[in-house]
Amino acid sequence: xxxxxxxxxxxxxxxxxxxxxxxxxxxxxxxxxxxxxxxxxxxxxxxxxxxxxxxxxxxxxxxxxxxxxxxxxxxxxxxxxxxxxxxxxxxxxxxxxxxxxxxxxxxxxxxxxxxxxxxxxxxxxxxxxxxxxxxxxxxxxxxxxxxxxxxxxxxxxxxxxxxxxxxxxxxxxxxxxxxxxxxxxxxxxxxxxxxxxxxxxxxxxxxxxxxxxxxxxxxxxxxxxxxxxxxxxxxxxxxxxxxxxxxxxxxxxxxxxxxxxxxxxxxxxxxxxxxxxxxxxxxxxxxxxxxxxxxxxxxxxxxxxxxxxxxxxxxxxxxxxxxxxxxxxxxxxxxxxxxxxxxxxxxxxxxxxxxxxxxxxxxxxxxxxxxxxxxxxxxxxxxxxxxxxxxx
Amino acid sequence: xxxxxxxxxxxxxxxxxxxxxxxxxxxxxxxxxxxxxxxxxxxxxxxxxxxxxxxxxxxxxxxxxxxxxxxxxxxxxxxxxxxxxxxxxxxxxxxxxxxxxxxxxxxxxxxxxxxxxxxxxxxxxxxxxxxxxxxxxxxxxxxxxxxxxxxxxxxxxxxxxxxxxxxxxxxxxxxxxxxxxxxxxxxxxxxxxxxxxxxxxxxxxxxxxxxxxxxxxxxxxxxxxxxxxxxxxxxxxxxxxxxxxxxxxxxxxxxxxxxxxxxxxxxxxxxxxxxxxxxxxxxxxxxxxxxxxxxxxxxxxxxxxxxxxxxxxxxxxxxxxxxxxxxxxxxxxxxxxxxxxxxxxxxxxxxxxxxxxxxxxxxxxxxxxxxxxxxxxxxxxxxxxxxxxxxx
Lengths: 392, 392
What we know:
Two copies of one chain form a homodimer.
Chain A: H1 6-18, E1 39-40, E2 52-53, E3 59-64, E4 71-75, E5 81-82, E6 84-85, E7 90-94, E8 102-110, E9 113-115, E10 122-125, E11 128-135, E12 152-160, E13 165-173, E14 187-191, H2 200-203, H3 207-216, E15 224-228, H4 246-263, E16 273-278, H5 280-291, E17 298-302, H6 309-314, H7 318-321, E18 324-330, H8 349-358, E19 363-368, H9 375-385
Parallel strand pairs in A: 14-15, 14-16, 16-17, 17-18, 18-19
Antiparallel strand pairs in A: 1-2, 2-3, 3-7, 4-5, 4-8, 6-7, 8-9, 8-11, 10-11, 12-13, 13-15
């Protein structure tokens, strides 16, 4: 079930990769005095002072490369932040505009080569391990590491006959999972985006901390989250039109779900199984769930398309089987000032959500304030989505 | 219980950090023709062709930085491999000497700055995320990812009152742990070395795969492995004399062990509890176990000192309580040609092991062939150590 909007999708994903949904969306802010209250990013390597972020959400970088000819930072796909060499041989620079709140990928250009910032931790995105920086957000408490009961993130290696490989998945098990050996749990299958992998939802998304905090506050039913590689990265720019969800669908439906149901205490039926994904992972979710409504009853698309009344009609049993359709976007993806304008995956997601609701489907449309096609939008999508799941 | 050999220890760890136990230990090999059968390292980022290794264990690097003035590779602490710029703007070079088998950390110097190779995966060592390269070993099958039943590596976040933090540990649970809710398991607490952290034994050491393979072959009793941060990295060069094992000991004994015993199905007694560590982690193991023989009965020191008859006499109940003392080293650490010569942690570990055996202690001394103070020695130590544990 390929969507009719594939051409739009291609352009949109190209935009995401090239950073047209960039992080430096506050360019409208005039270049006023930069406050000198910079603090190290919380995603720095242990003991590293740089990169830093100030209270205005400007980032400052410092790279030691005394004999280099040019050093710049590429963040969010804008023209980049050029760094200037000081007398100590270190290159420093500050972003001209404030960054959006939340997590951003970035990379260095050093004399024409692409490298990571040795001060920052690494995160897999754009088919490479990138540098990451975290801009403190007003609502960061919901994904903070707090003194609450914590679940686990369990790395499992499962056999895959269809690919002839042993494959990796991460399984979040909620606090208390180890306590009652008779308790069984619903499961959310949660997919990363293009260029990312199965590490993204924990490392960048902090999905486990979001769940720990929601559960501690009594705001969601405890459930498992399964994260595996969506095999999207062979579909490079220009080749996405040929992307075939088939091999991943086979791994997911025929291998991973049976493995999880055999090795974890799940409630192994459609009523207790959800699928969601971000960007390309949202497209995969849409393609797979609409064809497998006997497997999944709850659907989440985070910056990754929507489900239209036409989709609903084309999927037999949709009205009876689907318990939730959640569609979320960052506000900067939707285009201002027309808040309901088409986002990057074709159609009008808000209009689709409203049409589904009118047709009697439990349909939720969420807009993350002041964020783009980035992880802060998706952290918030998960926060909004999780409490809606598996209500009986 | 600080060892009397602290001065020697300091020199040795400095050596390890500065790479005097370097990887390029085959420097005696004359620079004969280099075979052009290079293949990408198995630790490269997805789709990356470089770095590469050939059948003679030479490594070749290729770094794109067209405007750079100088690019070199530092691996194993030798003077480094200078790269030369080709007409395509890429810098390439091949190690002059073969590398030892197994895993090596390395880093780039680009115009005087320290960066990672964008082709390689990252591994935490020397208090930074370093580049890693894997040289195929004749015995690599024992840590290969194979089609056998796999255990899990579970990330747990546990509360620590003594440090006022929520701390991370990884817990390996063997295949079948999820199946029988009445089965209980012994536990090995396994520590990383100076400059590393709780990710090292999985990422660099492949401890989970070593265990999966040993268990599949029926060569070890299944047990849990718990890996947490040894808090060794605040003790920088020059400050190691002031290193205090106390805070880590408190976390381990008062917080982590009770947490693991409460949340995993362990056999929570000394007979079923082991501790081992590599390098600095071996020193921690020695200090902690000798003072807590009611907590640990099996001791493993991997390139991290030994236990002498004097130590034995100073530890009340040693003879009755200690079920195994395992001491391992890489052969290149022991000094040729005197295979039993003192290694870098003072004393003569082989003589100590023999003396303990004569005194009736179950004492095992292992030498990893043709390896240095690096992870290939410690992978092999774990392979040799695990089958000796918890035999009743």
